[in-house]
Amino acid sequence: MSWLRDIDRWFIAEVLPHAAAYRAKAAYLCGRDNAEDLVQDAYARVLKAPDHRAIVTPRGFVMTIVHNLALERLRRANVVRIDLLASLDMLEVADPAPDAFAIASGRSELQSLLDLIDALPPQCSRVLHMRKVQGIPPAQIAETLSLSVSTVEKHIAKGLALITKARRESEAQVEEACPALSISRNVMST
Question: What's this model's pTM, rounded to 2 decimal places?
């Protein structure tokens, strides 16, 4: 078989001996009807690999490709058979939506930030709210409030500096009141 390329010999020796395992995983993920097609697609991707010699564990590599192809097919499918829903737990697809705690803490953080903005001097507060909350560009803020762009930028810088200072002071007070919190933050950041 002198007409075989190096990648062909590698494929026959390292990938094909595990074909039954690939088909079993594909059947588990997307049903027996589609298993062979999924495995063939995985083989095609393996053969397109830029450097097959760099693949340390060919069996694991192909299993990962089968897994990813099954995920791709499930995402694209308009209708998913009910028996395939059981395998969704195995796919370990994380829900991108934030959980209840993240939503509550985000709202709390936003409210404390808005309170800090409201506590700024009136003009500074107005400019910072327009820029950071409403997203209005400095030139438009300057025009609306009859200020120069330079003055608007100075108000923004001053407001951000005052908010940063207030947040640091607030965190320092919390750490003084509860030293254990300071220790746990230091442990988590390292």
Answer: 0.45
